[in-house]
Amino acid sequence: METVELRHLTIGYIVKGQQRIVVSDINATINASELTCLLGQNGIGKSTLLRTLSAFQPALSGEIYLDGTPLTALSSRQLSKKVGVVLTEKPDVRNMSVEEMVGMGRSPYTGFWGSLDADDHQMIDEAIRLVGIDRLRRRPVHTLSDGERQKCMIAKALAQQTPTIYLDEPTAFLDFPSKVEMMQLLRRLAHEQQKTIFLSTHDVELAMQLADRIWLMEPDRLSIDTPHQLAADGSLSRFIERPGIHFDTNDMTIRVARQT
Ligand SMILES: Nc1ncnc2c1ncn2[C@@H]1O[C@H](COP(=O)(O)OP(=O)(O)OP(=O)(O)O)[C@@H](O)[C@H]1O
Questions:
Q1: Do 97 and 139 form a contact (C-beta atoms < 8 A)?
Q2: Is the beta carbon of 219 within 6 A of some atom in ligand 1?
Q3: Residue range of the domain that includes 183
Q4: Which of 56, 108, 241, 256 has the greatest number of C-beta atoms within 10 Å?
Q5: Hey, whose CA ends up nearest to atom 2 of ligand 1?
Q6: Which parts of the sequence belong to the ABC transporter domain (predicted)?
Q7: Distance 22 CA to ligand 1 centre (A)
């Protein structure tokens, strides 16, 4: 069980020598055995947070602890055995098959050029089966559709067999049933394998139904609670409701008015 703890974490960028703070002083915990969904409007800082948690970019200040160990104390090899990451960047690969790409998830254990043993192959097969891309396994990754590639990159993170997985908009390109299946799979992995799963999404209705906990990022605050509690205290209405968009807090559904 791995728990992620953020202490006084300030995230953002250095632009022309000046700090550009995106979110300041985050104090929070991401729990193991839970699916946690990060919601917030465009440009609010979701990717920045995920990249900072994954050590792809430095925090401006504060600390991130992975099961009590500061993230900055871990080597990249140690980190790759603890945290699997699926970001939105397209992988820059040619002539690598889906099976080989998913196999790259095993590289923390085998080394980049290391050979895969029977256990590795079993984990690769299992990851491919779980995300439902068996028929794509021999296809070159650069020929996949956006949704197919997204599933492939999620399978790679699953093959990595880490206790923590961060995903930036993992359902963005998926068709509707695939979005549901992917979120259900990630929820199941959190519950059955005690994984810590933290993902950003714009699929608000799915997050409300399937997340154990929601992080709602807004310009002046970060609210963290169960979907029901965030509905009950008005946070989700504040985030969702606009003229012509109504959020029903009781059954947690969104209704959209026809304008004409
Ligand atoms: N390299 C960068 N340098 C400076 N500012 C950046 C950089 N990358 C992103 N930003 C800014 O940081 C803020 C947060 O961006 P981020 O990508 O984290 O938002 P997001 O919540 O993931 O948005 P979206 O839902 O649109 O993907 C935005 O104002 C963005 O313009």
A1: yes
A2: no
A3: 4-225
A4: 108
A5: 13
A6: 6-244
A7: 8
Give a yes or no: residue 79 inside a domain: yes
User: In the numeric block, which tokens belong to residue 88?
Assistant: 């939105």
68-80 tens-digit pLDDT = 999 999 999 999 9
Residue 89 within any structural domain of the chain = yes
Is residue 236 in some structural domain?
no
Specify the pTM.
Answer: 0.95
Q: Is residue 251 in some structural domain?
A: no
CA atoms within 13 A on the CB side of 121: 4
pLDDT 10s digits, 14-53: 999 999 999 999 999 999 999 999 999 999 999 999 999 9
103 lines ligand 1 (CB under 6 A): no
In ligand 1, which atom is closest to the CA atom of 200? 22
**If we measure between CA atoms, which residue out of 199, 115, 102, 201 comes closest to residue 154?**
102
Residue 31, strand partner residues: none
pLDDT of residue 210: 97
Residue-wise over 44-58: b if at least 16 C-beta within 10 A, else e? bbbbbbbbbbbbebe
113-143 per-residue burial string, b: 16 or more CB within 10 A, e: under 16:
eeebeeebeebbeebbebbebeebbebebee
Looking at the 3D structure of the chain, how many domains does it have? 1
